[in-house]
Structure formats: C-alpha cells, structure tokens
Write a structure and sequence with these properties.
heterodimer; A: 366 residues; alpha/beta; FAD/NAD(P)-binding domain; 2 domains; five-stranded parallel sheet; B: 394 residues; Pectate Lyase C-like; eleven-stranded parallel sheet; ten-stranded parallel sheet; 5 helices; 31 strands
Chain lengths: 366, 394
C-alpha cells in the first residue's frame, strides 16, 4: 500500500520520485497524482513555445538524485569527446533541450514512474490521523505537493487584447513585435522574433539582471541559504522579490544579435506597449499561493502561516505546523521558494526531494 | 560549488585521507619521514588558505579554479619544504601532491556527490564522514609526528676541552661538540643514524672512522694529525659537509677516503677544506658527489675517483697538487664540472709519467665528461690514457 504521495506529475514531482527510488522505495510504495503521465509534458510545451534549444541549467540540470554523473559526463561519453567536460569545468556547458528530454524519457522508463502515476487532479489536501487525506484517494503519511506554476501571467492591460499572446503559448511572429518582460523567456523571444525578420520592441519595467542562473550561485547551497533562512518573514519576502527579479544569462549569444539589430534599427527598448501588430507577454507566471486552489484551501483550512505571496516553510520545505516525526507535508517547485529561492529549477527540485527523502527515512513507519 | 567554511574543510580533510594513508605507506617503505612531513605541510597550507583566503574570496568556486589554486598550493608546499628542511626527492614529492590533487578532484566532482545526495546543496559538508575524516587525519598525523619525535636520536653534548679517544659510538645519537671540544685519538662510528657536529679530532690512525653503517652525517667536523685517513668511510652511507681536514706533513695519508660504498647509495662531500696528504679526497667503488670543496697542497692527487666509481666532481677548487689535480681512474665514470684546478706541479722526475702535472687525468678505461672547468698553470691541462675518454662539452 502506498504511504507516500506526490501531488503533481511534473518535473519537481518526477525528481522527487527518482530520489525516493534511489532511497529504496518501490513504485508500489509511491503514488503520483497528476493529469499527465509524461512528467515533461508541460515543460516541453513551454520550451517549444519559446523555441528554447538550450537549458539555462548546467551539467547537474537533470532529474537524477545525485549531481554526478551529470549531463556533461553522459554527453562526453556519448560523443566520445572531452569537450562537454571542459565546458562544464568552465561553467559553459548547458545541455540541449533534446538531451534533457531524452534523459527524462530514459529515467521515466527505467524508474517505474508510469506504474505509480494515478490520473487524478487533487484539489484538496486535509490533515487527518496518521497523515493527509487526498481528495478521497486515501490517507498518506508523507505528502509532497508539487502543483507547478498557478497559470500564466498576462498583464492586466493586455488581457483581452487580440494582439497579445503569452510567450509560453504556441505562436508565430508578426512583422512588428513587442515583447513585454525582461527574463530569459523575453530574451529568447527577442532573438526568435529578430530571427524571424521582425522589428522588435522590448517593453520592461526595469533593466534585467544578467546572471548565469536564476539566482546568485551561493543561494544554491547552504552558504547562501543559511543567512536567507535566518531572515525574518518580511525581510525574507523582500529578499525573495529581489532574487526573483527577471534575469537572463550574460554572454555574446544574446548581446551580439541584439547589438546588431539595434544598429539596424530593428530592436529598441520602450516604456509602454505601442502599436505593434503583436504583443508577446514574456511575463512568466502568476505568483503566490492564492492563485492555486489547492494551496489556497490548504492554508485556509489549516490556518497556515503565510508571508506575502508565500506559505511559510521550514528550511527543508516542509510545512512545519503539519509535519512531525510521523508525517510529512512538503512543498516542491515554485511554492517552495520560501525554503529555496530557486525552487522552480531542477536544483530546487533536488533540494526539496533530498529533504523529503530524509523525512521519509527518519519516520519509523514510513 | 559554493562551499560553506565547514564544507570546505570537511571536503578537504576527506580528500586528504588517501594522501595521508599513501604518505604513511611511503614513509614506512622508504624509512624516511618526508612523506608524512609533506602531508602535514599540505594539510597546514590547505587549512590556512581555506580559513584565511578561499572562504572569503570565493563565495562560488568554479571547477576551473582548482588548477590555479592547486598550483598556488604546490608552490607554497615546495617553498615551505625547502624552508623547513624537509629533504624530499622532488619527483616523489610532486607525485604525492599531484596524486592528492587528482584524488581531491575526483572525490569532489564524483565521489562525494555519489556518497551524499545533498553534497552540493550542503556546501560540501559531509556530516559524519567529515567528522571522521578530521579525526582520522588528525590522529594519523599526530601519531606519525609523535613517532617521529620518539625516534629522534638523543643529543649528546661534548663539553669544551680535550677528551681522550678513541671515542667509539655504538648507538644512534647526535654528538654535538661545544666550542673548544676536542677528541684526541679519533672517533669510531659503529651505529647507523649517527650525526657528529662541530667536533674537532686530533690524531688517531683515522681521524673519524665510519664503517658498515648507514645515515651518518659529519657536519662541521675538523680533523688534524691523523696517520692514515682524516676521514675514512668504508661500506657506509655518509654525508660530509663543511669539514676541515689537515694532513700537512703526512705524505702517505688521505684527507677523505670513501671506499666500497656503492651499495649504500649516494655519498656526498660538500664544502670541505682539505690540505696536505697524499690525496685530498679519494673514492673507491663508490657513488659520490664531491662539491664545493677546497683541496690544496697534496703530495700526489687532489681529488681522485677510482676503482669503478661513479659521480660528480663539481665546483671544487684544487690547488698545488703534485702530479694530478683531478683523477678519474680505473673504469670510473666521472662528471667534472665548474672546477678550478691551478698550479699543479709535475712529478715526472720521479719516473711516474702519469704524474706529469695534469689538471685533469682520465686513466685506465675511464670516462669523464668535462663542463666549464678552469684549468690554469698546469703543465698538462688534461689527458686521457690507457683506453680512456674525455668528452669536453664546452
């Protein structure tokens, strides 16, 4: 009988599943609730929409529980070339989207994932004796909620505008395009539209930060996280807003085509949307637990502590009020940013998964 | 990788485990302490840099940084080994460091992440393994240091004044002469691992006699009035440095005589001053380095390497020999480099044609390579006789 439930069947849940399997749990001991059996389905659609070819993550950007062997090692072995390893040592290796997805497929096939997936959308989680009751599917002692992003964010002014399309929705490019936003999706769309021959206007509220990963590297380890976890609620929420501001990687891959297009008069920055024929909203996702019915009801029914857009979590991404030595409720993916600012990355998924496995292993009855 | 301070140190100590183990094995195999001393220095350098520099300067340490940081640590290691007098063979020391560096890279990139799921996000912290590593490295090095200290030979101080010899040393010890300490009648060394420092010896058949023992060091000794040899080494391993041997008036004696030590490894005579005697410094069937010595006024030969000896004769000054300045003889192989040989006199009148005042003489199927020697005021600058060969490289 399953004692462990993963709510959500996306990449965060999939990473947790791989970690639990590595911890010795059998597929029959884990129930995965989701609407799609393919853990990369949602991510694949979004990556295809912005025509992403390369991951922002590095060699360890995969769903395996350990960082080694990373994708650079696997690619080097497959190509019989040390080049990926050298690039990785220089922090210049980024797996292709195809390599990443192929790895997900392999893991899915060999880990027994499909045997654990139950096609169901969980809309309510309630603390019960001996664990958590999941929407009529039974009580589970250890539950990881990985509901994913709570929908695409379209600026209010553009809702209903027939020119507007979200970057993560399928689209082509008009001759004149405004891209709203300043993150990696926006930067990718600038290049896509320019490559399609469009004239591009970038509309953004602030200059984007340029950094290799979503947040500064020290926030991927205890070095940066210890101080972050010590912050008070208000300070931590403010820090999160700063850390999660839009950014995209530095480098010539972006700078050169943009400089060339600006020189040709095909790329410019403006303050507001003007009369272009197409407006692409590269504005990410809606933010905050209130946009997710499952999380909103969880908070309301259990009177959980919140801070701004976030549910307050312990450093190991568990909901402290509902977790003890006998049961665990943890969040993964974007709702876990309170514990790990880059929670919506693969590294974040690993972080939560490792902590979740520790909780499961520490429980005498699992 | 963004290390925490604790993670940095734990990863470092765990990666040093194989190095410390290898150093202990090497030390046991070679009966020398340098591997353990080197491992200790590596640990000290690593911890100092981790605490004082790396943690502050490198909030994130990219993979490529391991190379320049490794080279920095290697340079510091070599410098400290020299400064602290750790006598390590260079290539072996480099191999120990290089092997340790490589193991650290493999462990850091592959071993530790496989061993501990949260290695990266924990900032390199290893939990119980980190603590155990610290204990093991600390205990091992402390035990090795304690053993080394316990095995140090006792130091015996020889008081100022004249001590009647012969003084026979039968246990490993360091004999240190106070200023004005003189042994009359010679010193006989009959134990391995003996060091004699700053002792003057007067008389005796042999001033200092080292036979059948290893690891003898004669440092700053002074010998005069010996009847046969100022210093005699037979079937022993010895390092002689900064000595003075006075054989003036003795026409048959030898200043320093090293014989049949081929099986005992390299013997060295460095920085000595020898005057008088039949030969200044002579080797028989030995592998010897003779360097930075001053030899003068010998009755027959200044420096002689003979009877299938091998070695280097380097940066010596030979003056006023009566016959031959530097002699390479009897199937010996000699490297003769940067020496000054002047004022050699001919003794051909005695009927010995090989004593015709050669600066350098190579004789009886011997070979000598000569580099940059100053041969002046010698009746015959150099010569090779009886199937011998001189190769002049400059």
């Amino acid at each position: 009988m399953s004692r462990i439930a993963l709510v959500g069947s996306g990449l965060a849940s999939f990473t947790a599943y791989q970690t639990l399997r590595r911890g010795g749990l059998e597929p029959e001991e884990i129930a995965v609730f989701g609407t799609e059996a393919d853990p990369a389905a949602q991510w694949r659609r979004r990556a295809a929409a912005i025509r992403q070819r390369e991951m922002r993550s590095e060699s360890d950007g995969h769903c395996l529980p350990t960082s080694f062997p990373g994708l650079a090692v696997r690619t080097a072995l497959r190509r019989r070339s040390p080049a990926p390893l050298v690039a990785s040592v220089l922090d210049r290796y980024h797996p292709t989207v195809d390599e990443f997805l192929a790895q997900v497929e392999r893991l899915r096939a060999r880990s027994g994932w499909d045997r654990s997936v139950r096609s169901a959308r969980i809309e309510r989680v309630r603390a019960a004796e001996g664990g958590f009751e999941l929407d009529g599917h039974g009580v589970f002692r250890h539950v990881l909620l990985a509901p994913g992003h709570p929908g695409l964010n379209v600026p209010e002014k553009l809702r209903g505008d027939p020119r507007a399309v979200h970057a993560y929705e399928p689209h082509e490019y008009a001759p004149t395009v405004t891209v709203v936003g300043a993150g990696l999706a926006a930067a990718t769309e600038w290049l896509n539209a320019l490559a399609a021959g469009a004239e591009v206007v970038s509309v953004r509220r602030r200059e984007p930060a340029r950094r290799p990963l979503n947040v500064p590297r020290e926030y991927f380890s205890r070095r940066g996280l210890s101080g972050f976890h010590r912050l008070g609620a208000e300070e931590r929420a403010a820090r999160l807003r700063t850390l999660l501001a839009p950014s995209y990687p530095p480098g010539r891959a972006f700078d050169e085509p943009l400089a060339r297009a600006a020189h040709e008069g095909r790329f410019r920055v403006e303050d507001a949307v003007n009369g272009t024929r197409q407006v692409i909203c590269a504005t990410g996702f809606r933010r905050g637990f209130r946009h997710d019915p499952l999380l909103e009801s969880l908070v309301a029914e259990h009177a959980l502590e919140t801070a701004g857009d976030w549910i307050v979590l312990a450093p190991d991404a568990t909901v402290a009020a509902l977790t003890d030595g006998t049961r665990t409720l943890a969040l993964a993916g974007v709702p876990a940013q309170w514990a790990f600012p880059a929670a919506d990355t693969l590294a974040g998924a690993k972080y939560v998964a490792h902590a979740f496995l520790r909780k499961v292993e520490a429980c005498p009855t699992r | 990788m963004s290390y925490t301070l604790r993670g940095r140190i734990e990863s470092r100590l765990a990666a040093l485990l194989p190095v410390v183990a290898a150093a202990c094995v090497l030390a046991a195999a070679e009966h020398r302490w340098w591997p353990v001393e080197a491992a200790g220095l590596m640990l000290g350098i690593a911890l100092a840099l981790d605490l004082q520099a790396y943690h502050r300067l490198l909030p994130y340490q990219p993979g490529w940084a391991a190379l320049p940081l490794g080279l920095l640590e290697l340079a510091l290691l070599v410098g400290l080994m020299r400064a602290s007098g750790v006598a390590a063979p260079l290539w072996q020391a480099l191999a120990l460091f290089g092997g340790g560096w490589l193991v650290a890279q493999i462990l850091g990139h592959a071993g530790f992440p496989l061993l501990r799921l949260g290695y990266a996000e924990d900032g390199g912290e290893l939990g119980r393994l980190g603590t155990l590593s610290a204990v093991f490295v600390g205990v091992t090095l402390a035990a090795a240091g304690g053993t080394a200290y316990a095995l140090l030979p006792p130091v015996v101080h020889l008081a100022a004044g004249v001590h009647q010899g012969p003084l026979v040393i039968t246990h490993r010890e360091v004999l240190v002469g106070e200023p004005g300490a003189v042994v009359r009648g010679g010193i006989v060394v009959r134990a391995s691992g003996v060091t004699i420092r700053n002792v003057s010896v007067v008389g005796g058949d042999n001033g200092i006699d080292v036979e059948g023992v290893r690891n003898t060091v004669l440092d700053g000794v002074s010998v005069s009035g010996a009847r046969l040899n100022g210093i005699l080494v037979r079937l022993g391993g010895v390092m002689i440095k900064n000595c003075t041997v006075d054989m003036l008036g003795n026409e048959i004696g030898k200043g320093i005589n090293i014989s049949y030590t081929m099986d005992m490894g390299m013997t060295m005579v460095d920085g000595c001053t020898v005057v008088g005697g039949m030969e200044g410094i002579t080797t028989h069937s030995s592998m010897t380095e003779i360097a930075h010595n001053q030899v003068s006024r010998t009755r027959v030969r200044g420096i002689s390497m003979t009877e299938m000896s091998m070695g280097m004769i380097t940066d010596n000054e030979v003056r006023g020999a009566n016959g031959v300045g530097i002699f390479c003889n009897d199937r010996s192989v000699c490297g003769v480099q940067h020496n000054t040989v002047v004022d050699t006199r001919s003794d051909a009148a005695s009927g010995n044609r090989s004593a015709a005042g050669f600066g350098v003489l190579v004789s009886f199927q011997s070979e000598a390579d000569l580099w940059d020697n100053q041969l002046a005021a010698n009746p015959v600058p150099m010569g090779a006789v009886t199937d011998s060969l001189i190769r002049k490289n400059h």
